[in-house]
Amino acid sequence: MSCVISLVNTKGGVGKSFLSVHLAVWLADAGHKVALLDADDQKTASKWLSGVADHAVEVTILEGGSEEAKAENLRKFINERKDSFDFVVVDTKGAAGLSTSAAVIKSDVACIPLQPSAADLWPIENALSTVRLSQEARAGQPKAFLVLNQTDDSDVLARDVRDLAEQFGVPMTKTNIKRLRAYRDAPGLRMVATRLTDKRGKPAADRLAELFTELLDGFLPVNKKVANG
Q: Which domain holds residue 187?
């Protein structure tokens, strides 16, 4: 059965495209059949993947002149194509809209990245309200997680944000995304950090693998879980 994962936040620049690209390639490198649906107006994920060598991700750019048309095209893509893949990753736009709501409603997992700032928590209520409505209508689906991005394990502000996040009633992943040069440089080098195996890069790859395994717990076949290195 196919699993649909949407990366959602109505605030831009929080790491949706970064996680979309790395998750899609990580899954494909593990032997899964993966589609990435780029529903972001900036098209960062599809542009990034166009320069990455030897990946097996099928990339589709969401078309449509209006939000209504985009939402309908997104629903149609997932309804008609999802069973052709093991995983469908949807990179949504950094603003509220019908296409983002449709992505959440059609998803099995909703990942909501944010940076360690109280200001980053305020805009996510739009995304969370859509998640809650979907969960009420679909017996708890999608599973939803907040993911801290661009932080450090010892970041005091990050701990404060974790405390504030409890007010939203959506769990935050135990694994965060650290502020690492390997992540910053990946797009410009036309690569993905999940493929790094050198001494400096492997911790970055392992951190992403840990996060993705946590997010997809229950959706990853045991015999196809990825081990880096």
A: 3-217
Residue 226 lies in a domain: no
Instruction: List 114's β-bridge partners, or say none.
Output: 148
The pTM is what?
0.92
pLDDT digits (tens, 9 = 90+) for 148-178: 888 876 666 667 777 767 777 888 899 999 9
Our count of domains for the chain comes to: 1
Q: Return d(Cα 191, Cα 78) in angstroms, integer.
A: 27
Decide: residue 8, CB within 10 A, 0-12 exposed, 13-18 middle, 19+ buried.
buried
Q: Is residue 74 part of a domain?
A: yes
The structure tokens listed for 119 are 């200001």
For 98, residues 6+ apart whose C-beta sits below 8 A from its C-beta are 67, 68, 70, 71
CATH number, domain at 193? 3.40.50.300
Is 228 within the bounds of a domain?
A: no
User: What is the SS3 assignment for 222?
Assistant: helix
Distance CA 165, CA 143 (A): 16
The predicted structure's pLDDT at residue 12: 80
223, amino acid identity: N
Residue 224 is assigned to a structural domain of this protein: no
Tell me the three state secondary structure of residue 77: helix
User: What are phi and psi for residue 53, nearest 5 degrees?
Assistant: -80, 145
Interatomic CA distance for residues 147 and 137, integer angstroms: 24
For residues 148 and 124, the answer to whether their CB atoms sit within 8 Å is no
Give per-residue pLDDT as tens, 98-140.
999 999 999 999 999 988 776 777 777 778 888 989 999 999 9
Crossing angle of helices 67-81 and 98-105, rounded to 10°: 20
